Amino acid sequence: MKKLYYYLLPCLLFSNAVIAQNENNPGSNHGNKFEQLGTMLSTPNEYRSASGAPGPKYWQQKADYEITAKLDDDKQRLDGVETITYTNNSPDPLTYLWLQLDENEHKKDAENQKFDESKMQSKMSLRQLQGIMGHDLDLGNHIVSIKDVNGNALKYTINQTMMRVELPATLQPGQKFRFKVTWWYNISDRLTIGGRGGYEFFPEDGNYLYTMAQWYPRMAVYSDFQGWQNKQFTGRGEFALAFGDFKVNINVPADHVVGGTGQCSNYAQTLTTAQLKRWNEAQNATQPIEVVNLNEVKQLMKGHSTARKTWSFHAENVRDFAWVSSRRIVWDAMSTRVDGGKKVMAMSYYGPEAYGLYRRYSTKVVAHTLRSYSKTTFPYPYPVAISVEASNGMEYPMICFNYGRTEKDGTYSEATKNGMIGVIIHEVGHNFFPMIVNSDERQWTWMDEGLNTFCQYLAEQSWDPNYPSQRGPAYKIVDYMKLPKNELEPIMTNSENITRFGPNAYAKPATALNILRETVMGRELFDYAFKTYAHRWAFKHPTPADLFRTMEDASAVDLDWFWRGWFYGTDPVDISLDSVKYYRLNTKNPANEATFDRAQFDRNLDNISTKRNKAAGDKFTVEADTALQDFYSKWDRFAATPMTTQSYQAMYNALSPDEKKLYDTKNFFYELSLTNRGGCVSPLIIEWTYTDGSKETETISAYIWRHNEQKVTKVFAKTKEVRSIKLDPERETADIDESNNSWPREMAPTRFELFKQQTLPRGATSGANPMQQSRKTTP
Ligand SMILES: [Zn+2]
């Protein structure tokens, strides 16, 4: 299949037939913004239903791990032996398995060390230069052996970050295969080499913080929608992982504290009596209790034990396992209850440099996140949730690494505090997407980052209504949507190919979901449908089509136009209110219409020449000679006469009751002409301000654009006279140009500052004065 695809590719690229197939109904005159996605989505089958739910024959593979790892704190090296039990639940016989060797991303000859563009700049950081020069370190996985349970060596081939293990016999559907991998690698310095796991060295006390992630050879995903996941790990596109059960023994220096995915079964052996007592107290605590406290950590930091301890963890139904180890971490814990009343231990691990922030906030933010996400999706199913301060932001099942350190004096800025709260919510939130709703991150960053950032926004806003959320509110995406088209990519772009990663894969999908919830579907329909998606795909592997289909299936809202505009397109929303025409009904009632008719008539008589003639004091003949005056000189052509009144009455009396009602109500008609300048179709939200000062807002569905995607005209009947009209008054549609949203046009209030033009000496290119500065620092 794959070969065929590559052979066909060159000719298909230039074939209109393929483009036509990808753009459903391209020949339509109205455009295709409202056409169904059709062939752009995968065909439903018995594994994935057209409703967006897993099909009757849905299957997924299972990978269970038993791992023993040994951390060498002197050499910064990790050794491991793991036994993997792989269960083939697919209908396909397998002759080989693929594993992921993610540490190979750091190898000096790795593809990803060379495939990025680079340019020399007048100012270069050490990190930038190191990126260009590369490193000469022994990094990457060393596979010592791969054997079956009988000790027979298995043949394997390493292709960069992937390893194919050949099976001694075909693994039939329903069968299990157990094998053992022995490996080691040198742990990299996370702050200079980069990456999601590694060590951080603290020169002031000579200790290390190890945050161990992607640390063991992991099974790749084999699925119904793409076979073996075959995209290499480059450091960018995250992970595709199978669910399984873990038993992990971690051997570390005896003075280290270890936290990890799952539950530890031997705290009695690893903690002191006092610490164990505090751990037991924490089981029912509603405030965080320091299991390992700051004083103990300060003592531990001074020593360097040569004794060893093993911490034993187990975790069920997780897609990965990560851990932290150091002698410089405080550990606090408290119990919390999520939707459904289930108890979860919320915990944090942090160094002294984060104590001033993490002690007060971290564990409580963990607990808040679990409660908020449990309400939005499903009750958090795992027994623990951990936040580790590691000066970054990275997520794993039940454990995540975040930032938030204080100044030496314990103070911190508001930005650090808010950033810390946001990152903890975000990374703990990843437990739901993608740790449980297990999408393929290597393919679709937005499926976990976008959905998670949306839920993060909800959690931030229920933490504090004044929390300055950076992503979620529609108006916050405007600057990104305003960029030139060639700088934008659709959300439906593979992770590796995205330019502007943050706005594309985090902010835009989060904003789109927020617009769906607040503006397009409404909270009730959206919340039910989003929850349905989360329930359907918890502990399974969803694809984008499963989300798109479920959101429609559970709400009866056709959203194909929305997915097209926001997820497959790059067009922004910019609706312009071009003109407003105002109509009143001519009742023909002389008593009511005389004033209006007279005003129109007089306006025509009162032209510029007449006005100037009068102003010049001209003598008019018909005024000077009164003999010229007759009936018509004084006649009011608009005054009601017995005859006109009678004829109006006759006409009125002949009307039906409904027609009479229409005549009697004062009606004003406003014809609005609008153009879709941005391209992305969007509902019309119209705020009417009446001459009596009252306001009314009404919403017209985006369907108004379905026959003409560029221009629409619509008439609105009002019983009060309108003073002004404003589109999208709450800035909820991400309209990129608000200056064309109002009638009459409003002047946008903008400020500028007046400053004195600085004149630089001839030849100077900057106002800075290094000579003066150097004098100031010289004693
Ligand atoms: Zn994230």
UniProtKB/TrEMBL annotation:
Signal peptide: 1-20
Domain Peptidase M1 membrane alanine aminopeptidase: 376-566
Superkingdom, natural source: Bacteria
Pfam family, one: Peptidase_M1
SUPFAM superfamilies with a match to the protein in the record: Metalloproteases ('zincins'), catalytic domain (SSF55486)
Alphabetically ordered keywords of this record: Signal
Keyword Acyltransferase attached: no
Region (Disordered): 756-779
Tagged with keyword Signal: yes
Protein's UniProt name: M1 family metallopeptidase
